[in-house]
Recover the amino acids of this structure.
């Protein structure tokens, strides 16, 4: 089953040459796929377009079998596909870890008790229960990255989009993150500069160069 398909996507920032010029990809259930390419090639832009956070000038986004064009079309997509941002501080904004992780389930209509049960389960699954009541902005970079993943997994997504997930991680936390991600059932679309991380998690790769995606 195809979860996400980007067809002939074109995008340019105002006054600049196109960063995407006919980029296409598909992500199927259970698939692990990497996107490589130089800095500024448009990899992060592609992930944001996939979730409707930016609009392409042309091309089509399809998710779960349906075309997605308007903001309303993407609300379901964001519930079912989770994006882990390149900078954890862009994703964590509540006072404590528990509140950050509960935010998504509460937005999905869960009761407070249900949301807190999800918090406890997800943090336990990730071996992060000791961070539950910590003040989020006082966490280390590695801790923030793992909590960011917890906030996304609390939404029970069917696929994960990971934008440079090893940013700011030391060797130990990178190994821990890899172990967690390898154990998950979700399809994964990975953007990473780390050759070793890509090879271990999502060896099937596409290269984004000159606005197009080709097998790497």
């Amino acid at each position: 089953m195809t979860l996400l398909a980007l067809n002939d996507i074109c995008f340019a920032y105002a006054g600049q040459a196109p960063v995407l010029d006919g980029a296409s990809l598909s992500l199927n259930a259970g698939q692990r796929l990497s996107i490589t390419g130089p800095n500024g090639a448009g990899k992060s832009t592609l992930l944001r377009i996939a979730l409707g956070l930016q609009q392409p000038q042309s091309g089509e986004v399809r998710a779960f079998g349906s075309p997605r064009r308007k903001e309303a079309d993407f609300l379901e997509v964001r519930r079912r596909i989770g994006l882990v941002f390149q900078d954890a501080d862009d994703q964590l904004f509540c006072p404590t870890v528990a509140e950050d992780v509960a935010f998504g389930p509460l937005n999905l209509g869960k009761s407070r008790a249900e949301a807190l049960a999800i918090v406890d389960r997800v943090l336990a699954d990730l071996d992060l229960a000791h961070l539950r009541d910590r003040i989020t902005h006082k966490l280390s970079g590695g801790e923030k990255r793992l909590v960011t993943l917890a906030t996304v997994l609390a939404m029970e997504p069917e696929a994960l989009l990971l934008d440079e997930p090893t940013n700011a991680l030391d060797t130990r936390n990178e190994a821990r993150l890899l172990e967690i991600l390898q154990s998950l059932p979700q399809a994964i679309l990975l953007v990473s500069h780390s050759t070793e991380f890509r090879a271990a998690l999502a060896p099937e790769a596409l290269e984004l160069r000159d606005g197009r995606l080709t097998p790497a």
User: Anything to note?
Assistant: The two ends are 23 Å apart (CA to CA). Residues 31 and 211 are 23 Å apart (CA to CA). The chain has one domain: 2-215.
